[in-house]
Specification:
The protein is an alpha/beta fold. It has 13 helices and 13 strands.
Length: 334
């Protein structure tokens, strides 16, 4: 357990479920009479709960690990939980609501960063960078037989059109792609930006060259991309997931990649994190994996921490939580 560098004896305390946040956010919290403590990422929930109880924390900033009912109930003075980011599927929202503790998200803080990562992963897949890299390093030279694919005119389907989906759509359009959006909760937003929309996901899938996921993990989106829907896609199509791992049925994805039912997939998030070392996806050369870092850039990390810090300060100062940032169990609990 580590205390922030210049934190000492302040009136209020928060626990961050990571080893660090941007120093500017630590300074902001310290300036508002708040000491900052850190708990290593992915520590067991009972360990995090014990730290929260020992410190008698007033607030929690969540980066990684499971925030269970045990953690939420550990400190009687806990008044607010804020996510260092936007995905809250690792927080027991129902338990927080039952205790009257608001859960807030750092909305808009990492939209550009995640969109950039989604486009980078799509580029890797469509341009077949990974197999070409392996071939050349292995002594091959596939130039005489290789014919690449174009981004110009390719159709990108987005599931979800929040801040990240919007940024991804703009970048894809700039690269010459046709963009179609499936978001049953905000179709008018995509249409207002000039993008085609699809009310029916299954009607959209067969036309796609790239499927990119940007929706939250909810009871409605868990295993949204399953074996049946994977079978609807072109054999030349690829999937990018920079949202939440549970949105894709990973066993079905492994089967589809193994059978060549789709051309490739790139995942930045997984149903269990970190994934098991023997995950069957690792055997597949058409799978690209990154460790859930799409939103982790210098700029976005600073923005996430500062937004989260401001939410904490506001609530601890007695203000109502920001309605726009609230995570409600009825909307988001998976």
């Amino acid at each position: 357990m580590t205390r922030a560098p210049n934190g000492s004896g302040r009136r209020r305390r928060i626990l961050v479920t990571h080893t660090q946040i941007a120093q500017s956010a630590v300074d902001l919290l310290n300036d508002h009479d708040i000491d900052v403590f850190f708990s290593p990422p992915y520590d067991p929930s009972d360990v995090v709960a014990a730290r929260a109880a020992e410190l008698r924390i007033d607030a929690m900033m969540v980066r990684q690990g499971r925030i269970t009912d045990e953690v939420i109930g550990a400190s009687p003075g806990l008044k607010v939980i804020v996510k260092h980011g936007v995905g809250v599927d690792n927080i027991d929202l129902a338990a927080a609501e039952a205790r009257g503790i608001p859960v807030l998200r750092s909305m808009g803080s990492n939209s550009r960063a995640v969109a950039e990562h989604a486009i980078a992963l799509a580029l890797m897949l469509v341009k077949e960078i990974q197999p070409l890299n392996a071939a050349v390093k292995g002594g091959g030279w596939p130039k005489p037989t290789f014919i690449g694919k174009d981004f110009q005119g390719a159709t990108l389907g987005l599931v979800g059109y929040g801040g990240i989906g919007r940024e991804t759509a703009r970048m894809a359009e700039a690269l010459g792609m046709e963009v179609v959006v499936h978001d049953p909760y905000a179709p008018e937003a995509a249409e207002a930006d000039g993008f085609a929309t699809a009310a029916d996901l299954e009607a959209m899938l067969p036309a796609l060259d790239i499927l990119s996921l940007h929706c939250p993990l909810t009871s409605a989106t868990r295993d949204l991309i399953d074996a049946r829907r994977l079978a609807m896609m072109k054999r030349t199509a690829v999937i990018v997931n920079t949202a939440r791992g549970g949105i894709i049925d990973e066993a079905a994805l492994a089967d589809a990649l193994r059978a060549g039912a789709i051309a490739g997939a790139a995942l930045d998030s997984f149903a269990t994190e970190p994934p098991a070392a023997d995950n069957p996806l690792w055997e597949l050369p058409t799978l690209v994996a990154t460790p859930h870092i799409g939103g982790v850039t210098a700029g976005s990390s600073r923005a996430m921490a500062e937004i989260a810090a401001r939410h904490i300060i506001s609530v601890l100062d007695g203000n109502p939580p920001d309605e726009r940032a609230l995570a409600r169990p009825a909307d988001l609990a998976a």
